[in-house]
UniProtKB/TrEMBL annotation:
Listed Pfam families: ABC_tran
Record's protein name: ABC transporter ATP-binding protein
Keywords in alphabetical order: ATP-binding, Nucleotide-binding, Transport
Domain ABC transporter: 2-238
InterPro entries in the cross-refs: AAA+_ATPase, ABC_transporter-like_ATP-bd, Metal_Ion_Import_ABC, P-loop_NTPase
Source superkingdom: Bacteria
GO molecular function, one term: ATP binding
Alphabetized Gene3D superfamilies for the sequence: P-loop containing nucleotide triphosphate hydrolases
Species for this entry: Chryseobacterium edaphi
Length: 307
């Protein structure tokens, strides 16, 4: 596991989250959700070792975060907080270029390949027309995208974002979330981001960390959502153009969950599969053979083997 939390109590003067056991691998996107005040930001700061654990340990690539220097943590984790200090007299391009600072001395000039990478990230985030605009003259949404761009240029294996879509409209929200998912899948990044928007889990995350009643519930998205009724009121996005859906016979909520899971994870034609939900078991037929799965995680493993 690249990020491991082991029997941790997280909080300040009192424990906010008890006995946390959770892990994430490179290539995974995890949504951290929970109501205001439950400890989401405190958990993020604990991973960054900006807040000491009351008990337990947090490991990054088998190294305890309390034993890492500030520079080592920056090399491993790029972070975007919901409230960031805005550098004065900086343009969008200046801010995004700052993500390279851990690889250079204090005074530096970017190499050609680094400038090209900054340019590509500016284009990917749809900020080209603002690249020379002062940060103080940006809208909240474009400012948030610029800070996310700085984190992307840092090229750390882990990217943590605290409420990254708060100030974004639907178009820009999709740009950010697609960018993050592409980073996880194509560049093997570990992405952890917090949000109040439960809808994002089904469409863009592999796993959920859900904080409720001083506990952290973790697991594959679809399994966790169905274990907590309050999380299943979600709307569906469609962004996988190469996905061809299979036949699915089930109650509506299970059907929507399975559809989201498959179109999120498989860039392929799945029309040769037939899914039927029967007494909490998924029955799957393919090439005249029948399979049974008890969880969505088992379904992902099965489809990966068969197709």
């Amino acid at each position: 596991m690249h990020l491991l939390i082991n029997q941790a109590n997280i909080g300040y003067d009192k424990t906010l989250i008890s006995n946390v056991n959770a892990d994430l691998n490179l290539g995974e996107v995890c949504l951290l959700i929970g109501n205001n005040g439950v400890g989401k930001t405190t958990l993020i700061k604990s991973i960054l070792h900006q807040n000491s654990l009351m008990e337990g340990e947090i490991l990054i690539n088998n190294k305890n975060v309390k034993d890492l220097s500030v520079k080592e943590i920056a090399e491993n984790i790029a972070v975007v907080f919901s409230k960031s200090v805005i550098p004065q007299n900086y343009t969008v391009e200046d801010l995004i270029s700052l993500g390279k600072y851990i690889y250079y001395p204090f005074y530096f000039e970017l190499k050609k390949e680094d400038r090209e990478e900054v340019k590509e990230i500016i284009q990917e985030l749809d900020l080209t027309q603002y690249k020379d605009t002062l940060l103080t003259n940006l809208s909240d949404g474009n400012l948030q995208k610029a800070f996310i761009g700085r984190a992307l240029t840092q090229n750390s294996p882990i990217i943590i974002l605290d409420e990254p879509t708060t100030h974004l409209d639907e178009k820009n929200k999709l740009i950010i979330l697609k960018t993050l998912r592409n980073l996880a899948q194509k560049q093997n990044k570990l992405i952890l981001f917090s949000s109040h928007d439960w809808r994002l889990a089904k469409e863009f995350a592999d796993k959920i960390w859900y904080i409720k009643d001083n506990h952290l519930y973790s697991g594959i998205v679809e399994d966790v959502l169905l274990q907590h009724d309050e999380l299943t009121n979600a709307s569906l996005f469609q962004f996988n153009e190469n996905f061809v859906a299979p036949s699915i016979k089930s109650p509506q909520i299970q059907k929507e969950m399975l559809y989201s899971l498959l179109q999120k994870n498989f860039q392929k034609d799945l029309s040769s599969f037939n899914f039927s939900f029967n007494e909490s078991i998924w029955e799957i037929s393919h090439c005249n053979k029948m399979y049974k799965c008890e969880s969505f995680e088992e379904i992902v493993i099965l489809i990966s083997k068969l197709h």
